[in-house]
């Protein structure tokens, strides 16, 4: 997900989306430890998306 797409999401929806993506990330890592994923680069991509979302949420908190 691009930063421009993240900026369009409302603040409360962004917080919910972060929780969902973190749960998805944890599940993906667990599944990968049990049996390898077809595309392990998805883990890296998801981790970076979560970081982008958290950075945008923090930026909004600071700009209030």
UniProtKB/TrEMBL annotation:
<dbReference type="InterPro" id="IPR001854">
    <property type="entry name" value="Ribosomal_uL29"/>
</dbReference>
<dbReference type="GO" id="GO:0006412">
    <property type="term" value="P:translation"/>
</dbReference>
<dbReference type="GO" id="GO:0005840">
    <property type="term" value="C:ribosome"/>
</dbReference>
<keyword id="KW-0689">Ribosomal protein</keyword>
<protein>
    <recommendedName>
        <fullName>Large ribosomal subunit protein uL29</fullName>
    </recommendedName>
</protein>
<dbReference type="Pfam" id="PF00831">
    <property type="entry name" value="Ribosomal_L29"/>
</dbReference>
<dbReference type="InterPro" id="IPR018254">
    <property type="entry name" value="Ribosomal_uL29_CS"/>
</dbReference>
<dbReference type="InterPro" id="IPR036049">
    <property type="entry name" value="Ribosomal_uL29_sf"/>
</dbReference>
<dbReference type="GO" id="GO:0003735">
    <property type="term" value="F:structural constituent of ribosome"/>
</dbReference>
<comment type="similarity">
    <text>Belongs to the universal ribosomal protein uL29 family.</text>
</comment>
<keyword id="KW-0687">Ribonucleoprotein</keyword>
<dbReference type="GO" id="GO:1990904">
    <property type="term" value="C:ribonucleoprotein complex"/>
</dbReference>
